[in-house]
Amino acid sequence: MSYLDNIQTFVRVYELGSMSAAARDMRISAAVTSARISQLEQHLGVRLFQRTTRSLTATEQGQAFYGGACEVLEAVANAETQIVDITDNPKGSLYVAAPLGVGRRLIAPHVPEFLQLYPDISMRLRLTDRKVDLTTEGLDLAFFLGQPEDSNLRIRKIADVQRILCASPDYIQVHGNPASGDALIAENHECLNLRYPGATEFQWRLMTEDGPKRFRVMGRFESDDGDVLTDWALSGNGIAMKPLFEVADHIKAGRLVPVAVQTPPEPIQMACLFTHRRGQDPKSRLFMDFMIDRISAVVRDGAGVA
């Protein structure tokens, strides 16, 4: 086992707070993870972690070593970047996250072409509508909609995404088509809500004559999967707020109809999120450039739907 492997393993154990979690993230066995930490401790002559049957915490020496270890890994990554830039032959694995709708419709269809262009790169694509933590989950970059909460991360904007409130013709026939956000509330419309961990209420930010305004909407249907909301809307169960590119085909075919058109949703930012070190990796830059070139017009214009 190389000293650099041991340092990389230490950093992942430190960040994830668990030997087993680090082993899963690095795709190695728990025994190899433990052996690498033991070798590193033996080399340094100190204990880096306090271990019990139920917990693992960094010692004072471990906390001090972490900063320097990250600097070592960043220096190696920078050196590799310079070599890759010269050889123009990027290698290695890319770990990417994206929301379900974005990943299924925009990212995943283009991954085969990207890997054909760069045969020495492999891809792990994680799709989820929950918020992800790039550091603890070992991600190179994440596509997202909205505003990130971590100001220490880097952002590369793709486009402002047009959104729409929509419902099925069956729902409208029974409940009517609300003209505005105020009508949504006054007429007690069933709103289909995307549930994030920790969310306590649902507010839709709509554009009014006086500017953006938050409407506290109500509904019995909640899910952490945006595609489930689309299916519920198609089945006549309520009104959904969706990125236009996700429901463009349904709108064109008449399966979904725009509602509350006097107060459309405020556009939402789509961007890539990455750490400073990951953003210097040629693989990450290539993948961002590749995807932005193919999806920016689609997410901005909603696949041409008026």
Biggest sheet record? 5 strands, mixed
Q: What's the shape?
A: elongated
| Helix and strand composition category | alpha/beta
Pattern of helices and strands? HHHEEHEHHEEEEHHEEEEHEHEEHH
Summed up, the helix count is 12
N→C terminal distance: 58 Å
Tally of DSSP β-strands: 14
- Report strand order across the widest sheet: 4-3-5-14-6
**Which spans have pLDDT < 50 for at least 5 consecutive residues?**
none
Indicate the percent of residues in helices: 40-55%
What is the residue-mean pLDDT, rounded to a whole number? 84
Give me the Rg, rounded. Answer: 23 Å
Strand content: 15-25%
Care to describe what's here?
The protein is an alpha/beta fold and 306 residues long. Helix content is 44%, strand content 23%. It is built from 12 helices and 14 strands. It has helices spanning 3-16, 19-26, 30-44, 60-87, 100-107, 111-117, 169-175, 181-186, 226-234, 244-253, 276-279, 282-301; strands spanning 49-51, 56-58, 92-98, 121-127, 141-145, 154-161, 163-167, 191-194, 203-208, 211-216, 222-223, 239-243, 257-258, 268-274. A 5-stranded mixed sheet has the order 4-3-5-14-6. Strand 1 (49-51) and strand 2 form a beta hairpin. Helix 1 crosses helix 4 (60-87) and helix 2 packs across helix 3 (30-44). The longest helix is centred in the N-terminal third of the chain and has 28 residues, at 60-87. The radius of gyration is 23 Å and the shape is elongated. The model has no long low-confidence stretch (mean pLDDT 84).
